[in-house]
Amino acid sequence: MTKKDKRVQVLVSVDDQHLPKLGQVVERCKAAGLEVEQTLEKIGTLTGSIHPDKIAGLSKVVGISSVERSGEYEIAPPDSEVQ
After folding, report:
1. DSSP 3-state assignment of 83?
2. The pLDDT of residue 72
3. Can you say whether residue 55 is alpha, beta or left, with left for phi > 0 and alpha for psi between -120 and 50 degrees?
4. pTM reported for the whole predicted model
5. What is the CA 4 to chain-centroid distance, rounded?
6. Would you list the domain boundaries of the chain?
7. Judging by beta carbons within 10 Å of its beta carbon (0-12, 13-18, 19+), is residue 46 exposed, middle or buried?
8. Splitting the chain (83 residues) into consecutive groups of 10 residues, what average pLDDT does each group show?
């Protein structure tokens, strides 16, 4: 994967008003560039990945209350000096 193709993981929250129409919100998110990995209907949350330059557009999708980048962590190998 090249740097240009790099996607970031995001957590997308759907506002309460649009929960009954979650399927439509998911389709709008896909159209905005989100590759949906999970739809958590009971809590109104989507997880997925998107190009960083499309996050602003995703947050403007009707029915979305917030878009947050997922944290990334790196752990040193077991044989490294820093633990």
Report:
1. coil
2. 64
3. alpha
4. 0.79
5. 18
6. 18-69
7. buried
8. 74 96 96 97 96 96 95 73 67
